[in-house]
Amino acid sequence: MNAKSLSGYLIAIGPILMMATWIFIWPALIGEGAPENAIGAELVRANIESGMDNLSLTVLVATLAGGSMLAMMLGFTLWARSLQGEGKKGALLATIASITIPVAAAGFMLGMEFNFAAADAWADKDFDNALIVGAVSEYINGAEPSFSWTFVSLSLVFIGIASFLQSNDVISKTIAGLFAVIMLITGILNFANINADPLFMLWMLINIAVGINLIRLRAQ
Q1: What's the first-to-final CA gap in the chain, in angstroms?
Q2: Which helix or strand (DSSP H or E) is residue 82 part of?
Q3: 34-66 tens-digit pLDDT
Q4: Terminus of the chain with fewer CB atoms < 10 Å: N or C?
Q5: What pLDDT digit, counting tens, does each position of 161-185 carry?
Q6: DSSP3 helix / strand / coil % (the chain, rounded to 5)
Q7: In terms of residue numbers, what domain contains 213?
Q8: What whole-number distance in Å separates Cα of residue 185 and Cα of residue 199?
């Protein structure tokens, strides 16, 4: 298994696990969390309390979701590295992406750490600090626009362009082109205060298509 095939598996499996976790596993095992109209301290408190009935289970499910995201980030990094090389079209774009994506992934990990820290503080009945730490996590992960997400989407646009330029078959060019366009739209809408859930689902689906195509290319 080389970098291209491993990246394919990570990019394809990551979204499937993430969607399964957030759509089915989390609501079934943890609950729905805060009401849709909750804001501020009420939102933070509800999100923390929803996972405190069984903290170990909450941490396990959250780790599965976070691990799925990190698997995708690793897959994108490996995909970008496979597009580097002397004389390859778009190699410079791929090089930039291979550097910026791991940095952004570290930011996502930091947000997860704040979530876990808030839960630990709440379990210790340190409610004031739990709300403060939880608020930091909430606004890191849910900020609009998101500084980290801006660089992730831009980096993925670069990867899509590099892959499009280097692809030799219609299927690969089409998937790479769609991937670049979707990520460009996602990056732009990051600055708009709209419901991004449908676009997020579209990103998950195109990720699966990208992963399957990378696996297909390796099998040829």
Answers
A1: 13
A2: helix 55-82
A3: 666 667 777 778 788 888 888 889 889 999 999
A4: C
A5: 999 999 999 999 999 999 999 999 8
A6: 80, 0, 20
A7: 3-219
A8: 9
Tell me how far apart the alpha carbons of residues 189 and 158 are, in angstroms, rounded to a whole number.
17
Does residue 86 sit in helix, strand or coil? coil
Q: Are 202 and 182 in contact (CB under 8 A)?
A: yes
What value does the mean pLDDT of the chain take? 87
Token reading at 123: 């379990």
> Token match 């804001």: residue?
39
The backbone torsions φ and ψ at residue 180, rounded to the nearest 5 degrees and listed phi first, read -65, -45
- Cα–Cα distances (Å) from 208 to 11, 26, 212, in that order, read 6, 21, 6
Tokens at 80, concatenated: 């970008």
- Calculate helix-pair angle for 3-20, 55-82, nearest 10 degrees: 150
User: What would the two tokens of residue 212 be?
Assistant: 């399957």
Specify whether the CB–CB gap between 7 and 76 falls below 8 A. Answer: yes
Do 137 and 198 form a contact (C-beta atoms < 8 A)?
no
CA-to-CA distance for 78 and 6, rounded, in angstroms? Answer: 8
CB contact at 8 A, 114 and 129: no
Whether residue 167 contacts residue 176, with contact meaning beta carbons closer than 8 Å, is answered with yes
Q: DSSP for 117-160? A: HHHHHHHTT-HHHHHHHHHHHHHHHH-SS-HHHHHHHHHHHHHH
pLDDT of 139 above 80: no
Cis peptide before 15 (omega within 30 of 0): no
Question: What is the rounded CA–CA span in Å between residue 149 and residue 166?
Answer: 26
Task: Identify the CA nearest to 75 among candidates 52, 53, 102, 56.
Answer: 102
At 71, the amino acid letter reads: A
